[in-house]
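Researcher: Here's the sequence for the chain we discussed earlier.
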Amino acid sequence: MKKLLTIISILILLLIILACDSLSSEKQMLRSQWSLKYDPDRIGLREGWFDVDHDRSDWELTQVPGEWGDGDYDGFAWYATEITASKIAAGYNLALVFESVDDNAVIWLDGRLFGKQIGYGEKFFFDLGDKLADDFQHQLVLRIEDLGGPGGIIGSVYLQPFLEEVDLIRSQASKRKAPAAPDWVQNAAIYEVFVRSHSKDRSFKAVEQDLDRIQDLGIDLIWLMPIYPIGIKNHKFTTGSPYAVRDYYKVNPRFGTPNDFKSLVDAVHERDMHIILDMVLNHTAWDNPLIDEHPEWYTKNEDGEIVPPNEGWWDTADLNYDNPELQAWMIDMLIWWLKETDVDGFCFDVAELVPKVFWQAARSACEQEESDVFFLAEGAQPDLHLNGHDMTYSWNIWAGITQLAAGQADPSEIKRSFEMEKYQYPRGALRMRFTENHDKERSRSLIQDSQLNLTAWAFTALMQGNPLIYAGQEIGSDTKIDIHLDDLIDWSKADRRLEKSMSEILAIRRNWIKPDSPFQIFIADDEKRILAYKHGSLLNFFNFSTDTFKFSAAGMDSILYGDLSLTGDGTLVLGPKNFGVIQ
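Model: Thanks. This is the structure I predict for it:
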């Protein structure tokens, strides 16, 4: 009898184990076939491409994760697939997780609007509740908006059982502290310059002559876009891209001589500012000497031919960092610029495409030459901060604030996007905040109302992070500088009132905000599009609506700036499209 009871107990235990095996607490990758349809005329919403019964027979098959096939296409495109959830372990919730999209996304589930995401390269998720509990196939549709460069669903998509939401978004990088950046950059305001478009004579000397104005603006750090000779072979359009480098050890003779450049660096330092160079290490021009001297350093196809990084960057040749000799050569080149020109660091183009192991070695070597060297990554991946870089791009805030100003987002989305950073980035990581740069449209073009445009930039300038001004932005230029052409900033049409306002805002930042000032963002009125945050001792309100906003602020000492007034009964009044700073 005892043996029988023992056998029965074992059988029961096996059944329990087998039953548990059918339940899952592991992520379930969406491996179903994805289909894709470009929407250049923006007709998808009107024609109901998200509907369950929409005919997708003419959509092309595509891979996820990955960029869409047409690397030159910017705009809207739609993705569709089928999803089914395996049995979820008891007590777990279920989330639909996206590691990264480029740039923004709107999501439908079974034909119903499910949610949206603003910002390039950000991990995000949606709680599915019991929507997939029936174990049937469900239809998932996304509309991706790409704002420049290749677009698509560039990260993995999966179903993830979870107990707490923080488990979904917390990255391994967020559990660590970012290595300390140089003291001089902790609260620095940054000014980006493309020498070729900055003046009619397109020279280092002209930039040097403009330094007093730039300093008066409140700038601490000048970032020069690539200053090297541009490739001629396979170059794009009129003059070619400055990111197609023909020689890493020379300056573009059109800008002046090496001594002219050194004079500019010295003049920057004499004004107690700093200067960094844009470095393009992922690829070279097709007529860079390295192609002939070291063809083994380049990426090749099956036929042994050197290839570009992607179809859209056909004017450049891709470097292969599997080669340790290439890595050593690049590090020596960086040290040469530090030693010979006394620059203070570098902005690294498409830093996410260069292996982490290289960045670690490059940072270590550069610090031996210059202990307070600064690395800015053109990228947003959190682990860049743990691999040599001091600062990353805040694409999330750029996308959120420009869409909020356009009436296409709510304050709650910007608040959520910012608060997600603490679960993704290492503690103390520096983030560059901006409303425009050379890769995007001018903010004055995206936000045509001049006051609303200033309010959007002020939001980025006074928040936690490092503000950026792209040359010409401070005078309200609405013409995008095409880096492949000989476009010029038209300084004769300068909005000097805007320039003065931006200077005053940077002065407030410099005088009242410290690198370690506590920061807390909140929504003053989501429906009326009023955002606010407390930064140090400052209380800042931003009105992205056309209505007057009235509120009270206990403990207010004084109104420092903005279209903000105090009525007799103690009510504060903030004008439409404006912002106010309270101390």
